[in-house]
């Protein structure tokens, strides 16, 4: 069926979606104010009954995205997709959605709401999903789970060749990709610019980085991660990242992050072996990519790429858990945690629109090297109008 939508009029109700005012729901002082009207514009809200409840549970005002940002002043987020985004103060972020990510969020919103309410989670909190009426563009609003910089280290980690360093010692690292048309970058490193070398060194560092945590913190983090990735795999979602931010210095605490408690992405605090105050923030982000036919084709085209991100959801989840089980390490040398452990996470929510029995067998595959013949088989029968023969013959690419 069609996902529930709410057309937001000029005088919107505080909780949207036809719900009664916040005062009638016992929302408390934090919930007083107008309803969602992002950037002061007329918008269509999606699954508002789910996200309004998440806002109430997190004590987020329903009008949190009404001002403090401008739709005409979005900036690039820095990823390969080039999504536009804006900050709302230091606590929230607005991000533009592709049509595919919009459709994915429509599909999983109800299951997502159940999942994040029923146990500890590392998934970035989402509080609003909307379409701006005059332009038809789709957006969602989320918690800024790592607070503001500067950061000693800021990583975007997938457990594969796409890992990268975003910031080091307070200095942002510009992404300089080695695209196929940049022939010089492929031939020799001597032709690389300084920015490319810094970016490459950051990628190498990100692949090898270890994140020290106290034993109970590490256990919490990995248990929540396993629960989250099980939900993501059930809903056929992949290509997500673990955002890891490290801060150092005195006076670090929950005020540096957007939430309270482990499920609110409170920083994990500890003292290093040198006695320095440390704070580690972790959050799973960019988790709306579904495993589609396009992803299957991309996997075939990238058959020669080692440790790629484009793999089926269950394979992706297993690799993700295995990688961070190795990279989240226990503190050594007398260092200790400054926070108490949280309760164990609860069961994973049901997947959106499918059961375990409906999961394709390709996602149940064990981790193993995939022969070239098997990898390219889906392309072997592909024909393009006007071509004299199939795209792939004898597993060699032909020029058409």
Question: How far is the first residue's CA from the last residue's CA?
Answer: 42 Å
Query: Biggest sheet, open or closed, and with what strands and sense?
Result: 7 strands, antiparallel
* Tertiary shape: globular
Mean pLDDT: 77
Q: Tally the beta strands.
A: 20
Q: What letter string, H or E per element, gives the SSE order?
A: EEHEEEHEEEEEHHEHEEEEEHHEEHEE
Radius of gyration: 22 Å
Helicity, as a percent range: 25-40%
Brief synopsis:
With 400 residues, the protein is α+β, with helices and mostly antiparallel strands. It contains eight helices and 20 strands. The chain has helices at residues 48-57, 99-117, 183-187, 194-208, 215-234, 293-301, 313-327, 372-380, and strands at 5-7, 43-46, 75-76, 84-88, 92-97, 126-132, 138-143, 153-157, 164-168, 171-172, 211-213, 237-238, 241-248, 268-271, 277-285, 289-290, 328-330, 336-337, 392-393, 396-397.
Q: How would you portray this structure in words?
A:
The chain is α+β, with helices and mostly antiparallel strands. Helices cover 26% and strands 20% of the residues. A seven-stranded antiparallel beta sheet has the order 1-2-6-7-5-4-3. A seven-stranded antiparallel beta sheet has the order 10-9-8-13-15-14-18, with helices on one face. It has a two-stranded parallel sheet with strand order 11-17. A hairpin with a 6-residue loop joins strand 8 and strand 9. The longest helix has 20 residues, at 215-234. The protein is globular, with a radius of gyration of 22 Å. The two termini are 42 Å apart.
């Amino acid at each position: 069926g069609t996902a529930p939508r709410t057309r937001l009029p000029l005088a919107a109700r505080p909780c949207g979606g036809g719900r009664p005012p916040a005062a009638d729901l016992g929302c408390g002082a934090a919930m007083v104010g107008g309803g969602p009207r992002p950037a002061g514009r007329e918008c269509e809200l999606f699954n508002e009954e789910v996200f309004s409840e998440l806002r109430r549970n997190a004590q987020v005002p329903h009008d949190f995205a009404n001002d403090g940002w401008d739709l005409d002043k979005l900036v690039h987020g820095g990823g390969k997709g080039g999504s536009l985004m804006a900050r709302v103060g230091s606590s929230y972020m607005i991000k533009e959605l592709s049509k595919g990510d919009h459709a994915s969020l429509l599909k999983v919103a109800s299951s997502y709401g159940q999942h994040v309410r029923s146990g500890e989670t590392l998934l970035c909190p989402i509080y609003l999903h909307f379409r701006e009426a005059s332009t038809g563009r789709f957006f969602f609003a989320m918690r800024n789970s790592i607070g503001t910089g500067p950061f000693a280290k800021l990583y975007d980690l997938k457990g594969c060749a796409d890992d990268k360093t975003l910031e080091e010692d307070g200095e942002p690292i510009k992404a300089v990709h080695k695209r196929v048309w940049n022939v010089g970058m492929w031939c020799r490193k001597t032709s690389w610019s300084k920015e490319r070398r810094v970016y490459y060194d950051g990628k190498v560092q990100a692949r090898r980085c270890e994140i020290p945590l106290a034993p109970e913190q590490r256990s919490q983090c990995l248990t929540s991660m396993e629960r989250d990735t099980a939900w993501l795999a059930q809903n056929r979602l992949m290509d997500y990242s673990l955002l890891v931010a490290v801060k150092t210095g005195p006076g670090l605490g929950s005020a540096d992050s957007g939430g309270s408690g482990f499920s609110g992405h409170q920083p994990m605090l500890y003292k290093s072996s040198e006695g320095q105050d440390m704070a580690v923030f972790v959050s799973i982000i960019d988790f709306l990519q579904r495993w589609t036919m396009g992803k299957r084709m991309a996997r075939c085209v990238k058959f020669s790429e080692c440790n790629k991100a484009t793999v089926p959801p269950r394979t992706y989840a297993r690799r993700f858990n295995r990688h961070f089980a190795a990279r989240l390490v226990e503190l050594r040398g007398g260092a200790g945690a400054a926070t108490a452990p949280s309760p164990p996470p609860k069961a994973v929510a049901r997947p959106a629109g499918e059961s375990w029995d409906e999961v394709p067998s390709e996602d149940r595959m064990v981790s193993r090297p995939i022969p070239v013949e098997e990898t390219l088989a889906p392309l072997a029968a592909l024909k393009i109008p006007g071509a004299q023969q199939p795209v792939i013959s004898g597993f060699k690419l032909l020029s058409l």
